[in-house]
Design goal:
single chain; 290 residues; alpha+beta; Rieske Iron-sulfur Protein; 2 domains; 6-stranded antiparallel β-sheet; 4-stranded antiparallel β-sheet; 48% helix; elongated
Length: 290
């Protein structure tokens, strides 16, 4: 059995995780709701829509890197520099927490939802140890020793939390691009009769085993991946307004002509395909290697 599995099982067995998840989601929703019209732009920033990649992973490098530097500096006796590194890590922890919470909020499955609560609780605990360490530094040798011990404890807790973060990302698939779960058609392939796609509407088809969303306006047909890149939602069950389709699960919106991301929570555009209509049949091909 992998070393991490017992730790994951232990975390998921903790009581009260469902209630804590509900309370945390409610607090996050209330905070966003208080922003009024700025709610969606702020959520897009936190989700990494502007980056084309979830914002949480790169931002976590700030506290992890800073606190690793602080650990080394403490070992070398460079107390002043270590305090600066601890402070940088605390600032980075705010960004890491807010972006991680935004990603976690859109998760529906119970297992990652519950493990995310444990991950967050450990991060908050580690941050608390580092905050106490920062406050004690520069107050004399005795307090410095306590500060170093607190920082080392915080680092150990953050390390455990990072293990759970890896479980969420790599095993439970929080954050990857779901539109690339299968290989899209590269060479031009048949996607069915034009008449099967309602004029002004959309239809999901399978092209060489890959789900494609076809939309039609008269003789003009567009094609993008039918699986939402964010969490795998079925775009054909969403709403189509003009040239924009909205995912029914979390509200990500994409342009159906080129797959461009209009707004999140997705951080990824949809794969788009070139389309030709030949003898009343639709043929699609990838616009570029995906």
């Amino acid at each position: 059995m992998p070393l991490s599995q017992p730790l994951v099982d232990l975390a998921l067995s903790l009581p009260g995780l469902e209630g804590a998840a509900g309370a945390l989601a409610g607090c996050f929703d209330a905070a966003l709701g208080a922003l009024g019209p700025a709610k969606q732009p702020v959520k897009d920033v936190l989700n990494g829509t502007w980056l084309g990649h979830p914002a949480h992973p790169p931002i976590t490098d700030v506290p992890v890197g800073a606190w690793t530097a602080a650990l080394v500096l403490d070992l070398l006796g460079e107390r002043r520099a270590a305090k600066v590194a601890v402070g940088v890590g605390l600032l980075g922890a705010v960004g890491a927490a807010s972006t991680g919470l935004a990603d976690w909020r859109d998760v529906a499955n119970e297992r990652p939802k519950k493990l995310g609560v444990v991950h967050a609780a450990l991060n908050v605990t580690a941050t608390g140890f580092y905050a106490a360490s920062f406050a004690l530094r520069g107050r004399g040798e005795r307090e410095e020793r306590r500060a170093v011990a607190l920082a080392a404890t915080g680092y150990a807790i953050a390390f455990l939390s990072a293990l759970y973060g890896g479980e969420l990302a790599f095993d439970l698939h929080v954050g990857p691009n779901f539109a690339h779960n299968a290989s899209p058609p590269g060479e031009e392939s048949d996607a069915g009769p034009l008449d099967d796609v309602p004029d002004g509407g959309m239809k999901r088809v399978e092209v060489n085993g890959y789900p494609v969303l076809l939309t039609r306006r008269g003789e003009r047909v567009s094609a993008i991946a039918a699986i939402c890149a964010h969490q795998g939602g079925p775009l054909e069950e969403g709403t189509l307004e003009g040239e924009v389709v909205q995912c029914p699960w979390h509200g990500s919106r994409f342009c159906v002509t080129d797959g461009a991301l209009i707004n999140g929570p997705s951080a990824y555009p949809q794969p788009a395909f070139g389309v030709r209509v030949v003898d009343g049949r639709i043929r699609v091909a990838a616009l570029e290697p995906l």
